[in-house]
């Protein structure tokens, strides 16, 4: 059985919040299909992305979906400590995303620097949870796409700058960017 991901235009015009889910499924080698948002099963959910898992459970909320898929395919850390940090890093990135959308980072460069400093400190092995990408890295791509629009000054944070360069060379990430479909709507 496969996963079904539901998102605006079935990701034909942009990936948006579905990007990290797609990347995680691709990295796992999981079977999945992408359908339009209006094809999602009705239920106690508000908005996309929505995923129906092979066991028939359907859920929404990007980071929750990532945590489930990460656990299914061992992309959420290889030991208990890494799994705990994974949860924290996802929420740190969500805070960064929220502040980016609220223009807090663009209007307060010192705040942006604090976040970049924090991210830099987490990248001790190339990627957020070690020497290979995890759900944190795939979620960070979505967040960084927004950061680049509003607070792009991360060059003085060498680990963050290297991570951004390196993550774009990971085969599933490169394939997504080479697809010509933007991560964010234009």
Radius of gyration: 16 Å
CATH class of the largest domain: Mainly Alpha
List SSEs in N-to-C order.
EHEEEHHHHHHH
Could you state the oligomeric state of the chains shown? single chain
CATH topology (level 3) name of the largest domain:
Glutathione S-transferase Yfyf (Class Pi), Chain A, domain 2
Percentage of residues assigned to helices:
40-55%
- Backbone structural class: alpha+beta
Tell me about this structure:
The protein is an alpha+beta fold and 186 residues long. It has two domains: 3-73 and 174-178, Glutaredoxin; 80-170, Glutathione S-transferase Yfyf (Class Pi), Chain A, domain 2 (Up-down Bundle). It has eight helices and four strands, in the order βαβββααααααα. It has helices spanning 19-28, 62-72, 80-101, 104-107, 109-122, 135-150, 158-167, 171-178, and strands at 3-7, 32-36, 50-52, 58-60. The protein has a four-stranded mixed beta sheet, with helices on one face. A hairpin with a 5-residue loop joins strand 3 and strand 4. Helix 1 (19-28) packs parallel to helix 2, helix 1 (19-28) runs antiparallel to helix 6 (135-150) and helix 3 packs parallel to helix 6 (135-150). The mean pLDDT is 96.
